[in-house]
Design goal:
mainly alpha; Rossmann fold; 3 domains; 19 helices; about 60% helix
Amino acid sequence: MSIWEDIVKPLASLKYLDNWVTQAGGVAVATSGLVLGSALSLASPWHYSCLWMPPSVSLLAVLIWFIARGIYWRSGGGRKIGLAFDGFRIPPDDWVEVRKELAGLFENPPLQTRVSLRIFPSTMIATEVRWKRTLQRYRLSNIFRMSAATLLGDDKKTKIDMHWTVNIGKVVSGEFLETVGRLAASISTNQRQIATHRDVLKFQAETAFDVLLYSLAVIEYANQQFEAADVFFRKLNQQLSRRTEFPHQVLLNIRWLHALCLIAASEFPGNSPPAAEELLKARELCEYAVAAYGHDFPFLRNVLARDLFYLRDIDAALEQANAALAVGLVEFELDSALLNHAVLLLFKDKYEESAESWRRLFVSPNLRRFNWQDLIRFADHAYQYGYPQAVFLRSLYRKLVKTDQPQSLVRQLAAWFEADPNRRHLQYVFYLTSMPNLSGAVTVKQVKSTTTRKSGAQSKSKRQNRRRR
Protein backbone atom coordinates (compact mmCIF):
# COMPACT_ATOMS: atom_id res chain seq x y z
CA MET A 1 0.00 0.00 0.00
CA SER A 2 2.85 2.37 0.84
CA ILE A 3 4.57 1.79 -2.51
CA TRP A 4 1.29 2.38 -4.30
CA GLU A 5 0.62 5.62 -2.42
CA ASP A 6 4.19 6.94 -2.60
CA ILE A 7 5.31 5.94 -6.11
CA VAL A 8 2.83 4.26 -8.42
CA LYS A 9 -0.16 6.50 -7.78
CA PRO A 10 1.73 9.83 -8.18
CA LEU A 11 3.38 8.64 -11.37
CA ALA A 12 0.03 7.50 -12.74
CA SER A 13 -1.28 11.02 -12.28
CA LEU A 14 1.26 12.32 -14.83
CA LYS A 15 -1.10 11.49 -17.67
CA TYR A 16 -2.46 14.97 -16.89
CA LEU A 17 -0.21 17.80 -18.04
CA ASP A 18 -0.80 20.00 -14.97
CA ASN A 19 0.64 17.33 -12.66
CA TRP A 20 4.09 17.57 -14.25
CA VAL A 21 4.88 20.55 -12.00
CA THR A 22 4.77 18.24 -8.96
CA GLN A 23 7.61 16.22 -7.47
CA ALA A 24 6.38 13.21 -9.38
CA GLY A 25 6.95 15.15 -12.59
CA GLY A 26 10.53 15.90 -11.57
CA VAL A 27 11.17 12.21 -10.81
CA ALA A 28 9.69 11.22 -14.17
CA VAL A 29 11.85 13.77 -16.01
CA ALA A 30 15.02 12.62 -14.20
CA THR A 31 14.24 8.97 -14.91
CA SER A 32 13.54 9.72 -18.58
CA GLY A 33 16.88 11.57 -18.75
CA LEU A 34 18.70 8.57 -17.36
CA VAL A 35 17.06 6.27 -19.90
CA LEU A 36 17.83 8.65 -22.76
CA GLY A 37 21.40 9.14 -21.56
CA SER A 38 21.92 5.40 -21.34
CA ALA A 39 20.65 4.93 -24.89
CA LEU A 40 22.93 7.68 -26.17
CA SER A 41 25.94 6.25 -24.35
CA LEU A 42 25.48 2.89 -26.06
CA ALA A 43 25.66 4.59 -29.43
CA SER A 44 28.51 6.87 -28.45
CA PRO A 45 32.06 6.15 -29.76
CA TRP A 46 33.60 7.68 -26.63
CA HIS A 47 34.96 5.44 -23.95
CA TYR A 48 33.40 5.58 -20.50
CA SER A 49 30.44 7.59 -21.85
CA CYS A 50 28.19 5.16 -20.05
CA LEU A 51 29.50 6.64 -16.79
CA TRP A 52 28.92 10.34 -17.37
CA MET A 53 26.34 10.64 -20.12
CA PRO A 54 23.22 9.21 -18.34
CA PRO A 55 23.55 11.44 -15.23
CA SER A 56 24.47 14.44 -17.40
CA VAL A 57 21.43 14.06 -19.63
CA SER A 58 19.26 13.45 -16.58
CA LEU A 59 20.63 16.58 -14.87
CA LEU A 60 20.07 18.64 -18.02
CA ALA A 61 16.50 17.36 -18.32
CA VAL A 62 15.78 18.25 -14.69
CA LEU A 63 17.29 21.71 -15.19
CA ILE A 64 15.08 22.35 -18.23
CA TRP A 65 12.06 21.05 -16.30
CA PHE A 66 12.88 23.29 -13.35
CA ILE A 67 13.24 26.40 -15.54
CA ALA A 68 10.07 25.62 -17.49
CA ARG A 69 8.16 25.13 -14.25
CA GLY A 70 9.32 28.50 -12.96
CA ILE A 71 8.30 30.21 -16.20
CA TYR A 72 4.88 28.55 -15.97
CA TRP A 73 4.36 29.80 -12.40
CA ARG A 74 5.53 33.33 -13.18
CA SER A 75 3.59 33.71 -16.42
CA GLY A 76 -0.04 34.66 -16.84
CA GLY A 77 -2.05 37.86 -17.05
CA GLY A 78 -4.34 39.49 -14.54
CA ARG A 79 -4.54 38.19 -10.98
CA LYS A 80 -2.66 34.92 -10.52
CA ILE A 81 -4.15 32.22 -8.32
CA GLY A 82 -2.11 29.29 -7.06
CA LEU A 83 -4.05 26.03 -6.65
CA ALA A 84 -2.89 23.07 -4.59
CA PHE A 85 -4.71 19.82 -3.92
CA ASP A 86 -4.05 17.23 -1.25
CA GLY A 87 -5.11 14.12 -3.09
CA PHE A 88 -3.60 11.29 -1.10
CA ARG A 89 -7.09 10.08 -0.23
CA ILE A 90 -8.68 11.10 -3.49
CA PRO A 91 -8.05 9.63 -6.95
CA PRO A 92 -5.96 12.00 -9.13
CA ASP A 93 -8.67 11.90 -11.77
CA ASP A 94 -11.06 13.53 -9.30
CA TRP A 95 -8.76 16.45 -8.56
CA VAL A 96 -8.18 16.98 -12.27
CA GLU A 97 -11.93 17.11 -12.81
CA VAL A 98 -12.22 19.70 -10.04
CA ARG A 99 -9.51 21.79 -11.68
CA LYS A 100 -11.23 21.54 -15.05
CA GLU A 101 -14.54 22.59 -13.55
CA LEU A 102 -12.90 25.50 -11.76
CA ALA A 103 -11.03 26.63 -14.87
CA GLY A 104 -14.25 26.40 -16.86
CA LEU A 105 -16.02 28.70 -14.40
CA PHE A 106 -13.34 31.34 -14.98
CA GLU A 107 -13.62 31.08 -18.77
CA ASN A 108 -16.58 33.43 -19.24
CA PRO A 109 -15.56 36.67 -21.03
CA PRO A 110 -15.59 39.13 -18.08
CA LEU A 111 -13.28 36.89 -16.03
CA GLN A 112 -10.96 35.01 -18.36
CA THR A 113 -8.71 38.02 -19.08
CA ARG A 114 -8.49 38.97 -15.41
CA VAL A 115 -7.47 35.65 -13.84
CA SER A 116 -4.74 33.07 -14.40
CA LEU A 117 -4.78 29.72 -12.60
CA ARG A 118 -1.50 28.00 -11.76
CA ILE A 119 -1.08 24.55 -10.19
CA PHE A 120 1.41 24.13 -7.33
CA PRO A 121 2.47 20.96 -5.51
CA SER A 122 1.12 20.80 -1.97
CA THR A 123 4.68 20.44 -0.63
CA MET A 124 5.37 24.07 -1.57
CA ILE A 125 2.72 25.25 0.90
CA ALA A 126 3.12 22.53 3.51
CA THR A 127 4.26 25.02 6.19
CA GLU A 128 3.53 28.65 6.92
CA VAL A 129 7.04 29.68 5.85
CA ARG A 130 6.76 27.84 2.52
CA TRP A 131 3.28 29.22 1.97
CA LYS A 132 4.45 32.83 2.43
CA ARG A 133 7.59 32.29 0.35
CA THR A 134 5.61 30.83 -2.56
CA LEU A 135 3.10 33.68 -2.40
CA GLN A 136 5.82 36.33 -2.60
CA ARG A 137 8.24 34.62 -4.96
CA TYR A 138 5.69 34.08 -7.72
CA ARG A 139 3.66 37.25 -6.98
CA LEU A 140 0.42 35.41 -6.48
CA SER A 141 -2.77 37.18 -5.53
CA ASN A 142 -4.12 34.10 -3.82
CA ILE A 143 -3.09 30.59 -2.85
CA PHE A 144 -5.95 28.14 -2.51
CA ARG A 145 -5.51 24.68 -1.06
CA MET A 146 -8.25 22.05 -1.09
CA SER A 147 -8.38 18.68 0.61
CA ALA A 148 -11.15 16.20 1.35
CA ALA A 149 -11.26 13.02 3.39
CA THR A 150 -14.46 11.50 2.06
CA LEU A 151 -16.40 12.40 -1.03
CA LEU A 152 -19.74 10.88 -0.13
CA GLY A 153 -20.89 10.41 3.44
CA ASP A 154 -23.90 8.62 4.80
CA ASP A 155 -25.84 11.89 4.85
CA LYS A 156 -24.98 12.55 1.20
CA LYS A 157 -23.39 15.90 2.09
CA THR A 158 -19.91 17.08 1.25
CA LYS A 159 -17.66 18.96 3.66
CA ILE A 160 -14.66 20.48 1.97
CA ASP A 161 -11.52 21.45 3.85
CA MET A 162 -10.21 24.65 2.30
CA HIS A 163 -7.31 26.90 3.21
CA TRP A 164 -6.40 30.10 1.42
CA THR A 165 -4.25 33.20 1.72
CA VAL A 166 -5.08 36.54 0.12
CA ASN A 167 -2.26 38.83 -0.94
CA ILE A 168 -3.98 42.22 -0.95
CA GLY A 169 -0.84 44.02 -2.06
CA LYS A 170 -1.07 46.98 0.32
CA VAL A 171 -1.31 47.72 4.01
CA VAL A 172 -4.85 47.50 5.38
CA SER A 173 -6.25 47.53 8.88
CA GLY A 174 -6.53 44.40 10.99
CA GLU A 175 -10.26 45.01 11.27
CA PHE A 176 -10.61 44.94 7.50
CA LEU A 177 -8.68 41.67 7.26
CA GLU A 178 -10.75 40.15 10.04
CA THR A 179 -13.97 41.08 8.27
CA VAL A 180 -12.69 39.68 4.98
CA GLY A 181 -11.70 36.41 6.62
CA ARG A 182 -15.05 36.05 8.37
CA LEU A 183 -17.05 36.61 5.20
CA ALA A 184 -14.83 34.28 3.16
CA ALA A 185 -15.32 31.57 5.78
CA SER A 186 -19.07 32.01 5.51
CA ILE A 187 -18.88 31.61 1.74
CA SER A 188 -16.80 28.44 2.05
CA THR A 189 -19.36 26.89 4.41
CA ASN A 190 -21.43 25.39 1.66
CA GLN A 191 -23.49 22.23 1.98
CA ARG A 192 -26.19 20.70 -0.17
CA GLN A 193 -27.61 17.35 -1.18
CA ILE A 194 -25.32 15.43 -3.51
CA ALA A 195 -26.75 12.91 -5.94
CA THR A 196 -23.84 11.58 -7.97
CA HIS A 197 -20.05 11.50 -7.90
CA ARG A 198 -20.00 14.00 -10.76
CA ASP A 199 -22.12 16.35 -8.68
CA VAL A 200 -19.56 16.14 -5.89
CA LEU A 201 -16.75 17.28 -8.17
CA LYS A 202 -18.84 20.12 -9.54
CA PHE A 203 -19.83 21.08 -6.02
CA GLN A 204 -16.20 21.28 -4.92
CA ALA A 205 -15.27 23.48 -7.87
CA GLU A 206 -18.22 25.84 -7.38
CA THR A 207 -17.47 26.32 -3.69
CA ALA A 208 -13.82 27.09 -4.43
CA PHE A 209 -14.93 29.41 -7.23
CA ASP A 210 -17.15 31.43 -4.88
CA VAL A 211 -14.37 31.89 -2.33
CA LEU A 212 -11.89 32.91 -5.03
CA LEU A 213 -14.35 35.40 -6.52
CA TYR A 214 -14.76 37.09 -3.16
CA SER A 215 -11.00 37.11 -2.53
CA LEU A 216 -10.31 38.66 -5.93
CA ALA A 217 -13.05 41.25 -5.46
CA VAL A 218 -11.58 42.25 -2.10
CA ILE A 219 -8.08 42.57 -3.57
CA GLU A 220 -9.33 44.86 -6.33
CA TYR A 221 -11.45 46.86 -3.89
CA ALA A 222 -8.53 47.36 -1.48
CA ASN A 223 -6.35 48.55 -4.37
CA GLN A 224 -9.14 50.91 -5.51
CA GLN A 225 -9.55 49.04 -8.80
CA PHE A 226 -13.31 49.37 -8.52
CA GLU A 227 -14.15 48.45 -12.10
CA ALA A 228 -12.36 45.11 -11.77
CA ALA A 229 -13.90 44.54 -8.34
CA ASP A 230 -17.34 45.15 -9.85
CA VAL A 231 -16.78 42.32 -12.34
CA PHE A 232 -15.97 39.83 -9.58
CA PHE A 233 -18.76 41.01 -7.28
CA ARG A 234 -21.41 40.70 -10.00
CA LYS A 235 -20.42 37.12 -10.72
CA LEU A 236 -20.24 36.36 -6.98
CA ASN A 237 -23.78 37.65 -6.46
CA GLN A 238 -25.00 35.39 -9.25
CA GLN A 239 -23.35 32.44 -7.55
CA LEU A 240 -24.63 33.22 -4.06
CA SER A 241 -28.17 33.78 -5.31
CA ARG A 242 -28.31 30.04 -6.02
CA ARG A 243 -27.73 29.19 -2.37
CA THR A 244 -31.05 28.89 -0.60
CA GLU A 245 -29.69 28.86 2.96
CA PHE A 246 -26.96 31.48 2.70
CA PRO A 247 -26.92 33.84 5.76
CA HIS A 248 -28.77 37.04 4.89
CA GLN A 249 -26.54 39.32 6.97
CA VAL A 250 -23.40 37.99 5.26
CA LEU A 251 -25.06 38.57 1.90
CA LEU A 252 -25.87 42.16 2.92
CA ASN A 253 -22.24 42.77 3.89
CA ILE A 254 -21.02 41.52 0.52
CA ARG A 255 -23.61 43.56 -1.33
CA TRP A 256 -22.66 46.70 0.57
CA LEU A 257 -19.01 46.27 -0.41
CA HIS A 258 -20.14 45.86 -4.01
CA ALA A 259 -22.28 48.98 -3.73
CA LEU A 260 -19.23 50.94 -2.58
CA CYS A 261 -17.41 49.85 -5.73
CA LEU A 262 -20.34 50.87 -7.93
CA ILE A 263 -20.61 54.38 -6.47
CA ALA A 264 -16.86 55.01 -6.23
CA ALA A 265 -16.94 56.93 -9.53
CA SER A 266 -19.59 59.22 -8.02
CA GLU A 267 -17.22 60.37 -5.29
CA PHE A 268 -15.72 63.65 -6.44
CA PRO A 269 -15.38 67.18 -5.00
CA GLY A 270 -18.48 69.33 -5.21
CA ASN A 271 -16.76 71.89 -7.41
CA SER A 272 -14.93 69.45 -9.69
CA PRO A 273 -17.21 66.96 -11.44
CA PRO A 274 -15.65 64.57 -13.96
CA ALA A 275 -15.89 64.93 -17.71
CA ALA A 276 -19.22 64.19 -19.38
CA GLU A 277 -18.36 60.64 -20.49
CA GLU A 278 -17.04 59.72 -17.05
CA LEU A 279 -20.08 61.26 -15.40
CA LEU A 280 -22.42 59.27 -17.64
CA LYS A 281 -20.52 56.09 -16.73
CA ALA A 282 -20.77 56.98 -13.03
CA ARG A 283 -24.52 57.46 -13.39
CA GLU A 284 -24.87 54.11 -15.16
CA LEU A 285 -23.04 52.29 -12.38
CA CYS A 286 -25.01 54.14 -9.72
CA GLU A 287 -28.29 53.28 -11.43
CA TYR A 288 -27.25 49.62 -11.35
CA ALA A 289 -26.45 49.95 -7.64
CA VAL A 290 -29.88 51.45 -6.95
CA ALA A 291 -31.66 48.80 -9.02
CA ALA A 292 -29.74 45.94 -7.39
CA TYR A 293 -29.37 47.17 -3.82
CA GLY A 294 -31.59 50.22 -3.43
CA HIS A 295 -34.07 48.26 -1.35
CA ASP A 296 -31.38 47.20 1.14
CA PHE A 297 -29.45 50.49 1.04
CA PRO A 298 -31.86 53.30 0.12
CA PHE A 299 -29.20 55.95 0.68
CA LEU A 300 -27.75 54.95 -2.69
CA ARG A 301 -30.55 57.01 -4.21
CA ASN A 302 -28.94 60.15 -2.79
CA VAL A 303 -25.74 59.35 -4.65
CA LEU A 304 -27.70 58.84 -7.87
CA ALA A 305 -29.52 62.14 -7.30
CA ARG A 306 -26.18 63.89 -7.06
CA ASP A 307 -25.01 62.41 -10.38
CA LEU A 308 -28.29 63.40 -12.04
CA PHE A 309 -27.92 66.97 -10.81
CA TYR A 310 -24.52 67.31 -12.46
CA LEU A 311 -26.08 65.94 -15.64
CA ARG A 312 -28.69 68.75 -15.33
CA ASP A 313 -31.58 66.33 -14.90
CA ILE A 314 -33.13 68.04 -11.88
CA ASP A 315 -36.50 66.32 -12.21
CA ALA A 316 -34.96 62.84 -12.11
CA ALA A 317 -32.66 63.88 -9.26
CA LEU A 318 -35.62 65.17 -7.24
CA GLU A 319 -37.49 61.92 -7.91
CA GLN A 320 -34.60 59.96 -6.41
CA ALA A 321 -34.41 62.30 -3.41
CA ASN A 322 -38.13 61.86 -2.75
CA ALA A 323 -37.78 58.08 -3.04
CA ALA A 324 -34.93 58.13 -0.51
CA LEU A 325 -37.01 60.13 1.98
CA ALA A 326 -40.00 57.85 1.52
CA VAL A 327 -38.30 54.76 2.96
CA GLY A 328 -37.77 56.07 6.48
CA LEU A 329 -34.07 56.87 6.66
CA VAL A 330 -32.62 57.73 10.06
CA GLU A 331 -29.73 59.70 11.54
CA PHE A 332 -27.13 61.04 9.12
CA GLU A 333 -28.59 59.21 6.12
CA LEU A 334 -31.82 61.15 6.68
CA ASP A 335 -29.92 64.41 7.07
CA SER A 336 -28.08 63.90 3.79
CA ALA A 337 -31.37 63.10 2.05
CA LEU A 338 -32.96 66.26 3.50
CA LEU A 339 -30.04 68.36 2.29
CA ASN A 340 -30.37 66.92 -1.20
CA HIS A 341 -34.11 67.48 -1.11
CA ALA A 342 -33.81 71.11 0.05
CA VAL A 343 -31.20 71.99 -2.56
CA LEU A 344 -33.04 70.35 -5.46
CA LEU A 345 -36.33 72.03 -4.52
CA LEU A 346 -34.47 75.33 -4.42
CA PHE A 347 -33.23 74.80 -7.96
CA LYS A 348 -36.79 73.91 -9.03
CA ASP A 349 -38.00 77.28 -7.57
CA LYS A 350 -40.18 75.48 -5.04
CA TYR A 351 -39.16 77.80 -2.25
CA GLU A 352 -41.78 76.95 0.37
CA GLU A 353 -41.12 73.20 0.17
CA SER A 354 -37.39 73.84 0.19
CA ALA A 355 -37.72 75.99 3.30
CA GLU A 356 -39.56 73.19 5.09
CA SER A 357 -36.73 70.73 4.34
CA TRP A 358 -34.19 73.25 5.64
CA ARG A 359 -36.13 73.59 8.91
CA ARG A 360 -36.21 69.84 9.36
CA LEU A 361 -32.49 69.64 8.67
CA PHE A 362 -31.51 72.39 11.09
CA VAL A 363 -32.83 70.52 14.14
CA SER A 364 -30.53 67.57 13.47
CA PRO A 365 -27.64 66.92 15.88
CA ASN A 366 -25.51 65.58 13.02
CA LEU A 367 -24.85 68.81 11.11
CA ARG A 368 -21.18 68.89 12.07
CA ARG A 369 -20.66 65.63 10.24
CA PHE A 370 -21.09 67.37 6.90
CA ASN A 371 -18.03 68.51 5.02
CA TRP A 372 -18.97 72.20 4.98
CA GLN A 373 -15.87 73.22 3.11
CA ASP A 374 -16.91 70.98 0.22
CA LEU A 375 -20.51 72.24 0.46
CA ILE A 376 -19.32 75.82 0.11
CA ARG A 377 -17.28 74.85 -2.94
CA PHE A 378 -20.34 73.09 -4.36
CA ALA A 379 -22.50 76.20 -3.87
CA ASP A 380 -19.96 78.41 -5.65
CA HIS A 381 -19.71 75.89 -8.48
CA ALA A 382 -23.50 75.57 -8.82
CA TYR A 383 -23.79 79.35 -9.14
CA GLN A 384 -21.26 79.32 -11.98
CA TYR A 385 -22.93 76.17 -13.38
CA GLY A 386 -26.01 78.19 -14.34
CA TYR A 387 -28.13 78.05 -11.18
CA PRO A 388 -28.62 81.61 -9.87
CA GLN A 389 -30.61 80.19 -6.93
CA ALA A 390 -27.28 78.92 -5.57
CA VAL A 391 -26.61 82.44 -4.25
CA PHE A 392 -28.78 81.41 -1.30
CA LEU A 393 -26.59 78.38 -0.65
CA ARG A 394 -23.37 80.38 -0.98
CA SER A 395 -24.44 82.77 1.73
CA LEU A 396 -26.28 80.26 3.94
CA TYR A 397 -23.37 77.82 4.20
CA ARG A 398 -20.93 80.59 5.06
CA LYS A 399 -23.32 81.91 7.69
CA LEU A 400 -23.69 78.49 9.31
CA VAL A 401 -19.95 78.03 9.76
CA LYS A 402 -19.39 81.71 10.64
CA THR A 403 -17.19 82.42 7.64
CA ASP A 404 -16.76 86.01 6.45
CA GLN A 405 -18.98 86.83 3.49
CA PRO A 406 -17.95 89.28 0.79
CA GLN A 407 -20.16 92.37 0.65
CA SER A 408 -20.85 91.63 -2.99
CA LEU A 409 -22.39 88.28 -1.98
CA VAL A 410 -24.52 89.96 0.71
CA ARG A 411 -25.88 92.42 -1.85
CA GLN A 412 -26.54 89.63 -4.38
CA LEU A 413 -28.55 87.67 -1.82
CA ALA A 414 -30.60 90.70 -0.79
CA ALA A 415 -31.40 91.44 -4.44
CA TRP A 416 -32.34 87.81 -5.01
CA PHE A 417 -34.78 87.83 -2.05
CA GLU A 418 -36.42 91.02 -3.32
CA ALA A 419 -36.82 89.76 -6.89
CA ASP A 420 -39.58 87.26 -5.99
CA PRO A 421 -42.05 87.51 -3.07
CA ASN A 422 -42.23 83.70 -2.84
CA ARG A 423 -38.63 83.66 -1.70
CA ARG A 424 -39.68 85.09 1.64
CA HIS A 425 -39.98 81.49 2.90
CA LEU A 426 -36.26 81.04 2.41
CA GLN A 427 -35.61 84.50 3.79
CA TYR A 428 -37.31 83.47 7.02
CA VAL A 429 -35.09 80.41 7.15
CA PHE A 430 -31.99 82.51 6.56
CA TYR A 431 -32.77 84.81 9.47
CA LEU A 432 -33.99 82.17 11.92
CA THR A 433 -33.07 83.03 15.49
CA SER A 434 -32.58 79.32 16.12
CA MET A 435 -30.08 78.99 13.27
CA PRO A 436 -27.47 76.30 14.11
CA ASN A 437 -24.06 77.62 15.09
CA LEU A 438 -21.45 75.48 13.32
CA SER A 439 -18.46 77.72 13.95
CA GLY A 440 -15.34 75.65 14.34
CA ALA A 441 -16.97 72.64 12.70
CA VAL A 442 -14.27 70.11 11.98
CA THR A 443 -13.84 69.33 8.30
CA VAL A 444 -12.72 65.77 7.89
CA LYS A 445 -10.40 65.20 4.97
CA GLN A 446 -12.04 62.83 2.54
CA VAL A 447 -9.50 60.08 1.97
CA LYS A 448 -10.29 57.14 -0.29
CA SER A 449 -8.56 54.49 1.78
CA THR A 450 -9.49 50.87 2.15
CA THR A 451 -7.87 50.81 5.57
CA THR A 452 -10.77 52.81 7.03
CA ARG A 453 -13.64 51.21 5.12
CA LYS A 454 -15.71 48.39 6.47
CA SER A 455 -17.72 45.92 4.53
CA GLY A 456 -20.34 45.48 7.25
CA ALA A 457 -23.76 46.94 6.52
CA GLN A 458 -23.99 48.07 10.15
CA SER A 459 -21.19 50.62 9.62
CA LYS A 460 -22.51 52.12 6.42
CA SER A 461 -23.87 55.29 8.06
CA LYS A 462 -20.35 56.22 9.17
CA ARG A 463 -19.24 56.50 5.55
CA GLN A 464 -22.05 58.55 4.16
CA ASN A 465 -20.27 61.90 4.61
CA ARG A 466 -18.31 60.99 1.46
CA ARG A 467 -21.34 61.09 -0.80
CA ARG A 468 -23.24 64.33 -0.60
CA ARG A 469 -23.43 67.75 -2.19
